[in-house]
Specification:
Blueprint lengths: L12 H4 L4 H9 L20 E15 L2 E15 L4 E13 L3 E2 L3 E7 L5 E12 L5 E14 L3 E14 L2 E4 L1 E12 L2 E11 L8 E14 L4 E16 L11 E10 L1 E2 L1
Antiparallel strand pairs: 1-2, 1-14, 1-15, 2-3, 3-4, 3-5, 5-6, 6-7, 7-8, 8-9, 8-10, 10-11, 11-12, 12-13, 13-14
Amino acid sequence: MPSRARFIAIVLVAELACFAPSARADTVMREEPAYPVAYARRPLTVLQSMLAPSLGFAYSQVSVGGVTATGAGLAGGMTLGATDDLELRAVPIAVELTPNARYGNPTLGLTYRLTKGDVEAGFRFDATVITSAPAGAVTTLGVPLLVHLGRDARVDTGAFLPIRFQNSNRVVGAAVPISIAYNPVDVFYVRAASGVTITSFAATYPVTFPLILSAGATIPGRRGPALDIEPFFALPTFVHFGPGVDNPITNAWTAGVSITGYGYF
């Protein structure tokens, strides 16, 4: 298919010295877990021995010249923290439900975190198998960048190079996405994403700017987040430069929801 502010209590050192043992234990319980509940404070990669299964559903519609085409799809995957800085991803469940039910395009990937702190950078690789005719593959290399803006907001960006191999041809593109997320409270966040997408350097008019809006709710657990539920709405070609194009383009859209669970081992 065309495919996270917060407030925590601050206790003065002088007050800590006066607390009874039971009160100190309560303070410890309120300390933030290694993998934060609030989306804005989470790191670039999941932590070692974390397992994050995910399931997503999307419905798309395109209307051109009075003709409307629709489609729906389902994707299921898993993210594993091999170390605190290396996560492995797989999306083996990729199903197009309509207009014709068929197996979609599965993906394997990894992210390695190179720097920590308020600014996190890393290396990312993804490989997607194209199962529809003509069959092929897409590999994407990139450098993700995460900037924490205090404790309540984050900016995700980076530079990525997708290469499509199909029909003995190689098509090279580029993408510089940007996503801004804000947590008014730990268990709720809003996010807006866009960026620059170059579908092919060989194309005459390859540049598009998508627009994605989403809001997420987090169910906390004992050791961090237990579940994220994030509905979204996307305009994948919101702005496209070319002759006769009437921007913004709103006749092609996708809506759906993604659900991610978190296990700690």
